[in-house]
Design a protein that fits this description.
Distance between the termini: 98 Å
Strand content: 5-15%
Number of strands: 5
Helix content: 55-70%
Number of domains: 2
Radius of gyration: 26 Å
Oligomer: single chain
Largest sheet: 5 strands, mixed
């Protein structure tokens, strides 16, 4: 089709990368020198550090849980050029985030134009879960970036998944090139995080259904009418895309075979496999997880603002243009693809993973926002006002905690937790440098590994699982092993007496999701027979140092 000369040229993606990166860099400037947090220090940074120093794809100094090695390889390669520092690591993650946001823009633009694409990209960048994950060195942002770029090739005009919208029929060499690109990108996503295989698997199922429909249509046509008309994808192209969606399972399978040859375990050690997969298959847990994941995809961290607006505006008639034609929504086939991908993630991540972490759903959030923004624009002229309202809600959600328990990494609570831990460890270094410290993971790792950014000289630690009454009682029975304790909040809970939407879910959370109630610092100090020497609380994230005024028997002996 000939472009109208009055139409503005499309924004250039390569030129857009620089301003997007500069914007996310500026928004995250105060977070770039924070030490590593939780799973960063627990697995991803030690694994990359081992590859950086030793060249081993399987970690030597941390747990072996069979995560694919691509994040470690990319981080180590980056450190070779920039040096090993939390600042350089977080800068790399912002580059990956900007790369992912360009995929969001390209995906939305191919379906709905520049205005919606810019809106969806900005909302995605500020959504609290995405914003918090933008600087954290988890595998999930790597996997989301590669997955979203792969989807842009799957949803392009030559894809058989959009055959209803293709006129004329695309050249098969272009379709083949896009299928190869999608296969390679999905493979990279799966080598970044194994659960990314869910997306090409879902598209493989959709493609099979489309192929079956194609074959049925061929059977009902007379032989004389079997010439391929414009707009219909050929059998060869269907098979090319089926191969593309199946291909990512191959490199992931090779990785697992390699891991088994090196460690004896294909999917990680038995405890890891039990916690993240085999223990999650009861009907009650799956049903409850489906509910939690539905909340994550529609309500969590003020996501209810755009979702409720879209549901309400769907009740209105579609807008009409100057010619009286209804304003276009997304193409029907594209909506089908987005729904299939969302349902696949909703179902898969209700089973996989012992903890229902929202970062697993990073690729889903721009899809939800794209559907919402497209509904707004098709219904009302003042849809930018709805976008601004959602943006303000997301910005508030980044700093203010919701009235229910959640993982600190879902918004900037992770920053508050890091800062509190920094201050506590600084106090230990200044006042109790030679002490044996009773504490739990992840602070235990923070005190043992200087490369995580909390201290320069490791401290001796004594392990405890958590700060429940049972664990504190065990520690009290072995008081001779430690002379100091560093205790901290392991999760966010709304303050007592305030609004808490968790309701009566504590019993099920304890049964299925390892929920436990930590004692408060005063309670821990009283049960261990110590006194609180230092404590701090920032927006519900707290830590305390407990000292124990004990006497010791000492005897001087002459030198031999």
């Amino acid at each position: 089709m000939t472009r109208d000369r009055r139409q503005r040229p499309p924004l250039s993606l390569p030129l857009l990368f620089a301003p997007v990166f500069i914007a996310v860099y500026a928004l995250h400037w105060t977070l770039l020198r924070l030490p590593y947090f939780w799973d960063e220090g627990g697995y991803y940074i030690p694994a990359a550090w081992d590859f950086f120093r030793l060249g081993t794809l399987i970690p030597e100094t941390t747990m072996r849980n069979a995560h694919p090695p691509l994040p470690s390889v990319l981080l180590a390669a980056w450190w070779r050029f920039t040096g090993f520092h939390t600042y350089t690591t977080r800068t790399l993650m912002l580059l990956v985030t900007a790369f992912a946001l360009l995929a969001v823009f390209k995906l939305a633009r191919s379906l709905a134009g520049d205005a919606i694409a810019l809106t969806v990209m900005v909302l995605t960048a500020i959504y609290p879960v995405w914003f918090a994950q933008s600087t954290l060195a988890h595998a999930d942002m790597f996997a989301a970036a590669f997955s979203l770029w792969a989807i842009t090739f799957c949803i392009s005009d030559d894809s058989p998944l959009r055959k209803e919208d293709v006129i004329p029929r695309p050249r098969e060499d272009v379709a083949t090139a896009n299928a190869i690109s999608a296969a390679l990108l999905f493979s990279l996503a799966s080598l970044a995080k194994e659960t990314a295989i869910v997306l090409p698997a879902a598209l493989f199922g959709l493609q099979l259904w489309r192929l079956a429909a194609y074959m049925r249509s061929r059977k009902v046509k007379p032989v004389a009418d079997r010439a391929t008309p414009p707009g219909i994808i050929t059998l060869r192209t269907h098979c090319i895309w089926l191969t593309a969606f199946a291909f990512p399972a191959l490199p992931l399978g090779f990785w697992y075979l390699y891991h088994r040859a090196k460690t004896g375990f294909m999917f990680g050690n038995p405890e890891y496999l039990r916690y993240n997969a085999t223990a999650n298959l009861s009907a009650a847990r799956v049903a409850l997880s489906l509910w939690h994941r539905l909340i994550h995809l529609t309500v969590h961290m003020n996501l209810y603002l755009p979702v409720l607006a879209a549901i309400a505006l769907l009740l209105l008639p579609a807008r009409t243009d100057s010619n009286g034609k209804p304003t276009a929504f997304l193409p029907r086939a594209a909506v089908q693809i987005l729904i299939v991908l969302l349902v696949a993630q909703w179902g898969a991540f209700s089973v996989l993973g012992g903890a229902l972490l929202t970062r697993y759903l990073l690729p889903a959030y721009p899809m939800v926002l794209l559907l919402c923004v497209a509904v707004w624009k098709s219904r009302v002229r003042w849809w930018p006002a709805v976008a601004v309202l959602s943006l303000v809600g997301f910005a508030i959600g980044c700093e203010h905690n919701p009235p229910y328990p959640f993982a600190p990494e879902d918004n900037l609570s992770y920053r508050d937790m890091i800062v509190v831990h920094q201050h506590a460890i600084r106090y230990l270094q200044q006042h109790r440098a030679g002490s044996s410290v009773l504490t739990a993971w992840p602070v235990e790792a923070d005190l043992q590994r200087p490369e995580l950014g909390y201290l320069r000289t490791p401290m001796h630690t004594v392990h405890m699982e958590n700060f429940t009454a049972e664990e504190v009682a065990k520690a009290a029975a072995n008081a001779e092993q430690y002379d100091t304790a560093l205790v901290f909040s392991t999760k966010y809970d709304p303050p007592p007496g305030g609004l808490n939407l968790a309701g009566e879910s504590r019993r099920n959370d304890t049964r299925f999701y390892d929920y436990h109630r930590d004692l408060l610092p005063g309670e821990i100090a009283a049960r261990l027979g110590g006194r609180i020497a230092w404590q701090e609380d920032i927006k519900g994230e707290w830590a305390a140092v407990i000292e124990f005024p004990r006497g010791y028997d000492a005897r001087l002996e002459p030198l031999q």
